[in-house]
Specification:
216 residues, alpha/beta, 10-stranded mixed β-sheet, globular, binds nickel (II) ion
Amino acid sequence: MNGLLLVAAGAALAATDGPVIRSAPEPIPCVALTFDDGPDPVTTPQVIDILRDAGAVATFFVEGRWADAYPGIVQRIVFEGHAIGNHSWDHPRYTRTSMGEVASQAARTDRAILSAVGYAPALLRPPYGAYNGAVLEAIGDRTVVAWSVDALDWLNKSPARIVARIERDVRPGSIILMHDIHPTTVEALWPVIEAIRAKGLGFATVPDLLAGRCTH
Ligand code: NI
């Protein structure tokens, strides 16, 4: 797909930066929790357990190298009703990578996910949220998902600070960035879910959020 068509597709979804999705197209009474950089063999199953016990859903942007190593966790993500996205093979900064390598990273990761669950994901989040026009061309016809709330959970290894930051910044239709590879993020997750529900907001996967559907 060429750049113009990408821009047109993004405009139709609104709440975007060019073709990149940052939140729901319209304010709706739910948010999308997103977890990057896994799956991790210890912490990702803990995140999935908490989501199950809380009756919530999320979207996992996985690295191909970890999806390839832990296909059973990728299967569990999908079987339990969560969405999955492509977060590169091994997390290079795409704006400092050759475009051939960007395309190869995206394709290898699609193949790892396809081999685990039987389909390649439509969603992609570039590492560090770093992209430019050339990167968007190289990754082609995928829905590129950024975020509107950054938990900074990789920096603040404090469950209380993670919860407070999300509580302060969350809005109807937010896409919230977290990482399912830190024990402190796992510890923060239950109170995060409670804080979001206390604001009268529920949960949806990114595809449901973009379609205006609050499901949980
Ligand atoms: Ni990442």
